[in-house]
Amino acid sequence: LSPVQFARSDVVEDVREALIQTRLPASRLELEITENVMLIDVDGALATMNALKELGVRLNMDDFGTGYSSLGYLRTYPFDGIKIDKRFISSMSGGGNDRAVVQAIINLGKAMGLTVTAEGVETLEQLDFLVSDQCNEVQGFYLSRPMEKQALLPLLKASHDEFPV
Description:
Elements: H1 3-8, H2 11-22, E1 30-33, H3 35-40, H4 42-55, E2 58-64, H5 70-76, E3 81-84, H6 86-90, H7 98-111, E4 115-119, H8 124-132, E5 137-139, H9 149-162
Parallel strand pairs: 1-2, 2-3, 3-4, 4-5
Helix pairs in contact: 2-4
């Protein structure tokens, strides 16, 4: 969700209506919120996020680690998860401190009971690091390029047949 969506529309009503129309269980919907949303209207953002949580949707802080006060937001706002910015993931195998930063974010998220997602995974080496560091979720081109719904449904069916829940 962008700051514009928070400022110009009734996000809660839009989400409620989308859930009703699609019959998607609210617990299956994860909304990603950038730090800029919280910088514009602190009280309004908190009220909107609490109302979204009341609907039952999950809230994730997108691009965690790039803002100057992300840690404070984790304590103030009702987030369910954090997404590690792809810039940390892309340079993680370069031998610098980025791997340590990624490990620290994963540990912080786990300590706070948050789901940690790494975005921008593009290589097997990155995936191996994240698996060994016990990151909860990954996303990126290494796993799949974005695809249309028509291509996704057969993939989900094949995945369910291979790994039934």
